[in-house]
Amino acid sequence: MAFCAPKCLHSSTVTLPTKLPQLNKPDLHRDQKPPLPRSPSPPPPPIETSGRKKSKPYSLKILRSKPPFITDTNLVFYSKRIDTLCRSGQTEEALRLLRAMEDSNSKHLFPDTVTYNTLINGLCRDGQLEAALRLLRQMRARGCPPTVVTFTTLIHGFCTAGRVDSAFEFLGHMERQGIAPNTVTYTALIQGLCARGDLDRALQVLAQMKSLGGDCAPNVVTYTQIIHGLCQKRLFEAGVEYLEEMRLRGCRPNQVTYTALIHGLCQVGSFTRAAALVGEMVAAGCEPDRVTYNCIIDGLGKGGKVDLAREILGAMGQKGVAPDVVGYTSLIQSLCEKGMVEEALGVMEEMKGKGIEPDSVAYSTLVNGLRQAGKIDHALDLLGEMGKKGLKPVGATFKVLYRSLYS
């Protein structure tokens, strides 16, 4: 078997422009085995909302304190306060502060484009799209013209909410106003199209970006979105082709790019191809991270190669990548599916011994495995342990176990 992952991954010394994705944990459904965390999704493109250098967040005490005397620097101070409020989810407080700035009689305190963009981004992040649109209209009425950042922020917000058609309307609107879209704008649209499975249109946008070039040229985030979208459709060959294309265009793949393809190949049992891609990743100087390892463990487990999955989990520490609850839960799930519940219990104890606390998904996975193996007493013990830790069973774990007891 060519997938000698521990050796391949650790044979040689081997950055992300954006935050790495996390593996999400869905609910467990009644009469179903608890599913593993879903496959990772590349992060949304970074939306810049401020031209100013970010500062450390203010404490709530400062935020609620009496404003200082009005000086030329007050606009920056209050804009930073608005940014901090938005980041902490206090958009209503941020709106009130904006109103106070607008109502002040000081020309030094009147909000500028950066201030409005900051609040529009906060509203979009909260899903308050209509409020963001109202603020756009208000911004114009106050003599603050929207910029490419303003429109890109709104386009990203609408795409995230699944309103891709509205996002394209904004694209046309900004172009009619003579505001040129950039790479981030188009990448936000590609993300939205891929999320709803419209790959044909996403590829059309990519082709347009390549044709325009310059400030609209696709970057690593753009290609990663495309590759992930193709993998979601199980079009792995096309994904590999776009990986090669981005290399030829001088766009270096990162962990997220490689991981999207590796995970997809593992899911369909193409372990040899996945191993080769891991080798390419290492040779390119791109260190596999925890998400990459978790995807390999997940894929191997689903492919029935539990021993190799366990070997890779154990080898992670040798490269300075600490395993987490997601990787352990994947292995526990795979062991339970093969009826190896005693081994799964051992993995749970190993996880605890390393200071990694099992979460509700990990416990529920093992409880279901024990139930299916007929070890009801042990399953009940685990439920009791969960209760002591304040953890609730995921999905219908308790109901299914109760039904097993009294059916």
Automatic annotation (TrEMBL):
Keywords per UniProt: Repeat
UniProt organism field: Wollemia nobilis
InterPro entries: PPR_P_subfamily, PPR_rpt, TPR-like_helical_dom_sf
Source species, domain of life: Eukaryota
Family: Belongs to the PPR family. P subfamily.
Region Disordered, annotated ranges: 18-58
Name assigned to this protein: TSA: Wollemia nobilis Ref_Wollemi_Transcript_15774_1779 transcribed RNA sequence
PPR repeat intervals: 74-108, 112-146, 147-181, 182-216, 219-253, 254-288, 289-323, 324-358, 359-393
Biased composition (Pro residues): 34-47
Pfam families: PPR, PPR_1, PPR_2
